[in-house]
Specification:
The chain has 341 residues and is α/β, with parallel strands linked by helices. Helices cover 54% and strands 9% of the residues. The chain is built from 14 helices and seven strands.
């Protein structure tokens, strides 16, 4: 990180009182190291940020076109990574804490402190924001590596079972589309994508000839294959994902009425993510080819979900699935776009 104490800082002072703005400018001139620009309204501040992005903003919370935390949100919308220091006449600790919770780096009260205090506060705010950005980028890099690793695991499994190549990817894509339709958070959807990509990882313990055997499966073979959710949980349970991936895997064959496996869970005992994966998994499996039967098509898959909505499958999830399929068709399962990190 550059030594900010020897650099000249471009500061935007957003203040509707010219006397107050001038006082800050004079105090900073005494300590040196600042080039100050001024804006008297939020609109002018947003324009100034767009034209000449500053290193930091000193922001009043009472402006002609904005009051309180709304001023912070407007500046952050214009420049999400810009350090913001509040400078206001309200000596209100609660307001200061609220400003910090909304992404500001510090809080100053007008008339308290001199140029040295203002300078130190702004330098600290810039350094703190830079550190936050470094941590954010590092976390994003780790998440990208995590997703790439999960995708590699998914591809490794599919190499053992060429008849279902792409199944986990397509289930993940449909599950993500359902999650978006249900209004889930981006973080939850990212976890859903991860769980979908490895929901059948337990099949690594199933003999390959069982997975690719043509014709109807025997009861004995079916019993072995039904072990894969539990085996997947065993494989993934000690990996510290940010989401309950291991439980998603173990529960993706559970059913609302308790007829699923391996635990016989019912209703809300089943994770929402697993209820979504269950619907996506069934829809993809029925509409795609399997070694023991040809593809049955979308109509049969849709009928399975409609007929068992509320018994085997979560009704809200079923409706969301049917909505996205009606809107995009089976191409919804081929949208392999990467999440924005």
């Amino acid at each position: 990180m550059a030594d900010l104490r020897s650099a000249s800082i471009n500061l935007l002072i957003v203040e509707d009182n010219p006397a107050d703005a001038r006082l800050v400018e004079l105090m900073l001139a005494e300590v040196g190291g600042f080039r100050c620009a001024k804006a008297e309204t939020l609109a002018a501040a947003v324009d100034a940020i767009a034209d000449h992005p500053p290193d930091a903003v000193l922001l009043d919370l009472s402006l002609p076109d904005g009051q309180g935390i709304a001023t912070v949100e407007r500046i952050r919308a214009a420049a999400p990574f810009l350090p913001i220091v509040i400078c206001t006449g309200f000596d209100d600790e609660a307001m200061g804490l609220m400003a910090l919770q909304h992404g500001c780096q510090d809080y100053l009260v007008k008339g308290q402190g001199d140029g040295t205090l203002i300078r130190r506060t702004i330098l600290y705010a810039i350094e703190r924001k830079a550190m936050e950005e470094e941590r954010r980028q590092a976390a994003n890099r780790l998440r990208r590596v995590l997703l790439q690793t999960v995708r590699s695991l998914s591809l490794t499994l599919e190499m053992r079972d060429p008849y279902t190549t792409g199944h986990q990817r397509r289930v993940a894509q449909l599950a993500v589309a359902i999650g978006h339709r249900l209004g889930l958070s981006e973080d939850t959807i990212e976890g859903l994508r991860t769980g979908g990509l490895v929901h059948d990882i337990g099949k690594i313990h199933v003999p390959a000839e069982f997975l690719s055997r043509p014709g109807k499966l025997s009861i004995e073979v079916h019993k072995v294959i039904r072990m894969h959710p539990q085996m997947g949980w065993e494989i993934m349970r000690d990996i510290e994902f940010p989401w309950p991936v291991a439980d998603m895997i173990r529960q993706h064959h559970e059913r609302l009425d308790g007829t699923g496996y391996p635990q016989g869970l019912k209703g809300d005992e089943i994770l929402l993510e697993s209820r979504i994966l269950a619907v996506a998994d069934v829809f993809e499996a029925i509409s795609s080819h399997r070694p023991y039967r040809p593809a049955l098509g979308m109509d049969i898959a849709t009928a399975e979900l409609r007929d068992h909505s509320g018994t085997r499958y979560d009704p809200a999830v079923v409706q969301a699935c049917l909505d996205v399929v009606a809107e995009k068709g089976v191409t919804v399962m081929d949208d392999d776009s990467q999440p924005d990190l």
